[in-house]
Amino acid sequence: QVQLVESGGGLVQAGGSLRLSCAASGRSLSSYGMGWFRQAPGKEREFVAAMRRSGISEYYADSVKGRFTISRENAKNTVYLQMNSLKPDDTAVYYCAAKYLGAPRASADYWGQGTQVTVSS
After folding, report:
1. Which of 61, 63, 87, 99 holds its CA 20 to 30 A away from the CA of 106?
2. Are 40 and 107 in contact (CB under 8 A)?
3. Is the pLDDT of residue 55 over 90?
4. Which residues share a beta bridge with 33?
5. Rounded to the nearest 5°, which phi and psi values hold at 56?
6. What φ, ψ does residue 108 adopt, rounded to 5°?
């Protein structure tokens, strides 16, 4: 079992930045691809960003490409999402996800509880 705990969410003005963290416990993340999803009120959960366990390949939703960056520190069992140039449309609950041997772009084996990001205009 892998437990994922997100942190770093909050309220920020449009154009600002936030860095989300996802700390894992239970197992080493070195065998897992990691990713971030988000769910806005009244909408379905959507893919945001993902990275393979090697850290070489990164994937982003078109809506965040060029503004968000996913990274990982396997030694700390932690994954990050740096979010720059935030827009009100980025307001959502952000979820960390882990997928064994793959990159979580459509599904995941483990999910965090989520952290709220609110971007004011």
Report:
1. 87
2. no
3. no
4. 99
5. -85, -45
6. -150, 160
